[in-house]
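User: Could you check the structure of this?
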Amino acid sequence: MPLPTVEHETAANPTHSVIWLHGLGADGHDFAPIVPELVDPAWPALRFVFPHAPVRPVTINNGMSMRAWYDVAGFDAHARQDEAGIRASVAEVETLIAREHARGVPSERIFLAGFSQGGAIALAAGLCHAERLAGIVALSTYLPIAATLAAERSAANAATPIFQAHGTVDPVVALPRGSASRDTLQALGYRVDWHTYPMAHAVCAEEIGDLRRWLGQRLA
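Assistant: Sure, the predicted structure tokens are below.
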């Protein structure tokens, strides 16, 4: 069964889909309000799919249960990573992609997007997906289990465009962690459209404008 989702279609009979993953402790409603700001009426009909992550205990929050794509032991780059949780969430994204296929949207018309923890899963799932995707959007995030992904990535998405954005004063996912992930992706040959903004762990209007232009180029 796919995860429960919040969905928004910009017009009838969508030809493209955007699967957008929220950050730690949020839910699928978190980014739904940005759809009107982001979407250009000239674009083809889009289906936005905002899944709710499963509820699980999160170590860094004293083991408190909340919606999370995987457990977080610490926010620094050297903290233990929950590889099993990351892989389980990648599998959940694969299920959501398969559901879009069943609704008539092929992989090459599906964008994976995410913020923070959700962005980490969007990268992990997108790089390893067996069929070419339309693009990957990674906001205020990093590449998880990077060494493993480098070995497991799919040739189908070697040329898939990536929009990566980060706040210069992010206290949660520090900017160097984001830029190091960008460097890793570029060293592997990926086309990364990198942006920074004077903000903390957040999304800003300028970023939405840049993302709108980037999506528009791929939906033209």
